[in-house]
Design brief:
Largest sheet: 7 strands, antiparallel
Oligomer: single chain
Strand content: 25-35%
Number of helices: 3
């Protein structure tokens, strides 16, 4: 083997060694990345915005994969948990589903039924009432006959709210001469016993106004005889 052949063999061996070195470097980088990123797991992302207190369904989310170490501890890994749940806040498109974003919808007792009424968004709700809250339901009535007095009544104390809908634009009633233009109302669903549900239905149909008063947590109203009705003439 002459000197030129020897140089060729040496260069070939060096090329092979460099190739092995580069391959080992690539494997090292891949191993380092895997050690930092870790295995991928399933997560769920919102397809569109979701309003607060909206009933959630599995169709509102899409499944994605991402490194487990990048997910927060309260990330939802099983989408079936959204069934029967509602959003507690405004949820934005693209947000990853976490268990602190959802709560279970309040359930009905055996002697309760659902009833929903439209409540003025400005005077009756103000964005502060959420499912699970207790409210007093007030209704104001004008004089029914000559000599009668206008009065305000607490028709249902300690009513349990189980759902708050979206703000809806309503055309004002023809007999409402004090307001002009389109009004905004929110459908509020209550869990009530039969008699209280009848009172609410009657008030929605015949009362001049129906309003809600939010109660503090753990502070239900206790009415004494005569306290559920108010007239201006009796306020002395």
């Amino acid at each position: 083997m002459n000197s030129r052949q020897r140089r060729g063999v040496i260069l070939l061996l060096l090329s092979v060694l460099c190739a092995f070195g580069a391959f080992a470097g690539v494997l090292s980088v891949i191993s380092d990345v895997n050690s930092k990123v870790g295995p991928e797991v399933a997560a769920y992302r919102l397809k569109a915005d979701v309003a607060p207190y909206t009933q959630l369904t599995e169709e509102q989310f899409e499944k994605i994969s991402m490194p487990k170490r990048w997910l927060s501890e309260n990330a939802v890994a099983d989408l079936s948990v959204v069934n029967g749940k509602i959003a507690v806040t405004q949820l934005k498109k693209g947000s990853l589903l976490q268990d602190d974003m959802i709560v279970k919808r309040p359930a009905l007792a055996n002697d309760e039924q659902e009833i929903a009424i439209m409540i003025d968004a400005e005077t009756g709700v103000a964005g502060k009432i959420t499912p699970g809250d207790l409210v007093n339901i007030f209704a104001t009535f004008g004089p029914q006959e000559k000599g009668d007095k206008a009065q305000s009544r607490i028709i249902v104390p300690n009513a349990k709210v189980i759902d708050v809908g979206r703000i809806t634009a309503l055309e004002p009633k023809e007999e409402d001469n004090n307001r002009t233009g389109v009004q905004q109302a929110v459908p509020i669903t209550f869990a009530l016993k039969t008699k209280d549900a009848q009172r609410v239905a009657y008030a929605e149909s015949f009362a001049a106004h129906v309003r809600l008063a939010l109660l503090a947590d753990g502070s239900p109203t206790t009415l004494r005889p005569g306290e559920n009705t108010y007239t201006l003439e009796g306020d002395k």
